[in-house]
């Protein structure tokens, strides 16, 4: 699958990354993880050192799949707003937002354990109304966030004008978010997993598989056999090539990275910025003072068509940056890429568990908050493999989640009350270990 095209920025930030051997023999392990991007590296991080023989195989090099095209926005808020989540799923929608907030906190805390700096930094966020007609929905979202204790405040047009060089009719200012370098993060987590005993193999492509009663047999392109008790597919959007998930939808997206900017005056705390329009534009800064902007999604999976639009999308994204920050002059797009992008019809990421793939889990962290989803899903997969269950698994497992869709209730936008309790749903914070 052609995941991305163009000039990528993130690999330039780690010019001499660790390299791992190609698998050149048969292998037996407890857990085999397919993929070493953000999803696979998170699963490896959480399983390594837990008394299991863990192996990771990556058909490319670590972090060079979709993660190399991720823009690294790390937020507890999602493409599907809290009001929409509660309306769709009741208390489960609220729990989803709680898990996202805990995942951001966990990501910020684990940095001190890693030998490779993943460039993860705490940042606030501004979520502004694209048009005045979006204000009622934006206010309802703020009320829902505030009612349930999320760290958010409402900014009117005057407050935005005081802090930023642009004018918007209203916005939600949130703390508790972050930014990450997804390429360095993948390498840092894989490096940590290897230090705790995980085996890592690059340029190792799986071309055959057979599911038996108590194990899974897989074969590499060179004919080596891997026998595993559990298999975790963390192949991102490429997983759809051999197991189509009906809840998933694939699109195309675009991003640019500018030249380093001398001054970011008028950009308070280097906040993440995004908008209410769908599809939306979003932007952040990099560790070396560049501006990263993405969006302009297109409903196509045709790589040729996707890539043909890259020059025009690059111009549009650069103009959007200049419109918001006119005081920043001499901007140019030094890096620009197009990429495949996945989402879920119901707005929640998923762990695929299918009868025809026994002893196998699929990490489907699709959506605009993939870095956060990778953390949540890895925590759940860890407990499913080690303990056999996780208290929040019914939000994410494909064979358990359908019951959530039976819960739908109107949410009064003027008074977001406490949603009904679903049986068996954990409401306390999970143990992030």
Structure description:
- This protein has 433 residues and is α+β, with helices and mostly antiparallel strands.
- 25% of the residues lie in helices and 26% in strands.
- It has nine helices and 18 strands.
- Strands 1, 4, 5, 6, 7, 12, 13, 14, 15 and 16 form a ten-stranded mixed β-sheet that branches.
- It is globular, with a radius of gyration of 21 Å.
- The protein starts with a strand and ends in a 47-residue tail after the last helix.
Give unreliable regions as ranges: 407-433
Beta content comes to 25-35%
Q: Which geometry do the CA atoms define?
A: globular
Count helical runs. 9
User: What's the alpha carbon Rg, rounded to whole Å?
Assistant: 21 Å
- The end-to-end span amounts to 35 Å
Q: H/E order of the elements?
A: EEHEEHHEHEHEHEEEEEEEEHHEEEH
Share of helix among residues? 25-40%
Mean pLDDT: 90
Oligomer: single chain
Give the structural class.
alpha+beta
Beta strand count: 18
